[in-house]
């Protein structure tokens, strides 16, 4: 929910308040992306009504719940140190539950 609000704020003020120290090129790109997303949401509501926007928010939020396999993306998409034993990446945080979980999460963990 906060990211959705931040996108709207970024679309209107032209700066991402979550990253105040980033360079102007970053903020310009973020503002352009946020404005495109805002325009898409406005068009979605005009075409499909408020239920269409609610469906979009439910689908955006549901994959972030810890019991959903793709939630691993939230916890492991930041590179960590490499293992001294086999040289593999060691994630900064993980909810990895073995090989089957890797398959279910499309190897994003």
Give the termini distance in whole angstroms: 24 Å
Radius of gyration: 18 Å
Average pLDDT across residues?
A: 76
| Molecular shape | flat
Q: Your description of this structure?
A:
This protein has 109 residues and is mainly α. Helices cover 56% and strands 0% of the residues. The protein contains five helices and no strands. It has helices at residues 2-13, 24-48, 50-62, 72-76, 99-104. α1 packs across α2 and α2 packs across α3. It is flat and about 55 Å long. 6% of the residues are buried. The model has no long low-confidence stretch (mean pLDDT 76).
Identify the notable features of this structure and list them briefly:
single chain, 109 residues
In short:
This protein is mostly helical and 109 residues long.
Topology (elements, then pairings):
Blueprint: H1 2-13, H2 24-48, H3 50-62, H4 72-76, H5 99-104
């Amino acid at each position: 929910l906060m990211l959705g609000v931040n996108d709207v704020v970024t679309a209107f003020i032209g700066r991402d308040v979550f990253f105040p120290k980033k360079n102007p090129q970053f903020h310009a790109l973020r503002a352009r992306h946020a404005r495109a997303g805002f325009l898409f949401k406005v068009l979605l509501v005009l075409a499909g009504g408020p239920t269409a926007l609610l469906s979009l928010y439910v689908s955006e939020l549901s994959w972030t719940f810890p019991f959903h396999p793709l939630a691993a993306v939230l916890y492991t998409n930041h590179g960590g140190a490499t293992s001294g034993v086999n040289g593999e990446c060691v994630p900064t945080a993980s909810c990895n539950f073995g090989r089957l979980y890797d398959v279910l999460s499309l190897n994003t963990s």
